[in-house]
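User: Batch of two.

Assistant: Item 1 of 2:
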Amino acid sequence: MPITMVTIAGRSLLALLFILAGAAKIAGPKPFLDHMAAHHIPGVLLPLVIALELGAGLALMIGWQLSFAAGALALFCLATAFGFHLDLADKVERTLFFKDLAIAGGLMVIAASAWRG
């Protein structure tokens, strides 16, 4: 399989994580707002999160402005890790923390590769 097809498939699978998360927040925002409130994050940010997840997720999927889309999503993953998953004594939270870091790392690789052209 040509490398281009593998790259598109990989980006699409990664983008799907964000696109589906944004759609879920639109479909039922209450649990997300409650989770944000529990972590002292203002609910007014939810529309921005949805826009980022959908917009940058779609851009990542189609390969548009890759360095910016992947970079923005990487920063978002880092913010999520440090804003929501810092209870490293809790096994689930620790797993989510490192998952967010790993996704951010993959997105940084995409951003750097796109930046180089």
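Item 2 of 2:
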Amino acid sequence: MQNPAAYIGLMNPKSPANVGMIMRGAGCYEASGVFYTGERFDRARKFSADTKNAASKIPLLHVNQLTDAITEGALAEGAVLVAIELIEGATPLMDFVHPERAYYLFGPEDGSLKKEIVDQCQHVVYIPTIGCMNLAATVNVLLYDRMAKSGGAVVEQRPIAANRDVNNKIRV
């Protein structure tokens, strides 16, 4: 990928802990921004578990509708809409080729994306599981898959010693 961009869109996230873990994952996997709708997260934002303070480096923005980020020009030009939903007819993640510039849309922890949003997406992807994962786990698996499929150069850019916790000194 020459000029990658990965945005995360969250529909009315319920749990501040999940949003905090999403922000941490967004920082680890270099997401370009996180957008969310609804009021539930704003009411509980002070309880967010963003332990690496990724929100200071990655935009975390409230929008009225997930697609507002596109119409307001907040996304990289040419970003492709990708719904991540555990629904019939979706493409399994292991078979999905990530667009260079993507806006990944996720439903709330206690629901799904609205059909009119899914209908606007160029791709619909699911992660094959037994049961469903929580929102933060789903976002992190998706971002890891994007990184893993991007090629070996990304591993060279992320040396272990520079990225591990300061209390981790073990070697193999």
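The first strand starts at residue 5 and ends at 10.
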